[in-house]
Amino acid sequence: MRFRNIILNAQLIFLSVLITACHNPVVKPHAWLHLSDGSTGREIAVEPLKEGQEVVLTWRNSLFNLMVREIFVARGGRLDLTDVTYADPRGIEPPLANAEDLDNLFQTGGPFRVTGISRPFKRLIFRVGKIGNPKLTIGEKQVEFAREVGFGGAVVLTVKTVEGS
Fold first, then answer.
1. Is 83 exposed, middle or buried (0-12, 13-18, 19+ CB in 10 A)?
2. pTM
3. What would the pLDDT profile of 107-126 be if each residue is shown by its tens digit?
4. Among 109, 110, 150, 108, which Cα is nearest to 127's?
């Protein structure tokens, strides 16, 4: 009888742990980031995204010869662009600019940093230029776009939720 109670208790504990694990967002990612070759559709990478996780794109702007860093944050099944930095080549902290000026700053050049942006994306297409050398960092994984699709190629980033949208 005592052995039977021990087995029953062990089964109940196992069942409660299993149910908790299945509903825990750490175990089950909120969304998935998919990277594919824009020409062939070949899958380059599929990475889980946790709510609030940063995804960082770095590249060199060929027109102004500045290193660029764009930070995206996973939110609600999408990526939100939250921070853009065009680095000063002298290593000096670039001036902080207003989010409303971002579109103009992309075109006019010069070092700047904009924070507090909230531009949502579920799909992005990146063209690979000769100078840019774009790299996307998702957690510990870094994807070099030029290595994957070559000069002139395109990488398609899509965020899909667990439900499939």
1. middle
2. 0.80
3. 887 999 999 999 999 999 99
4. 150
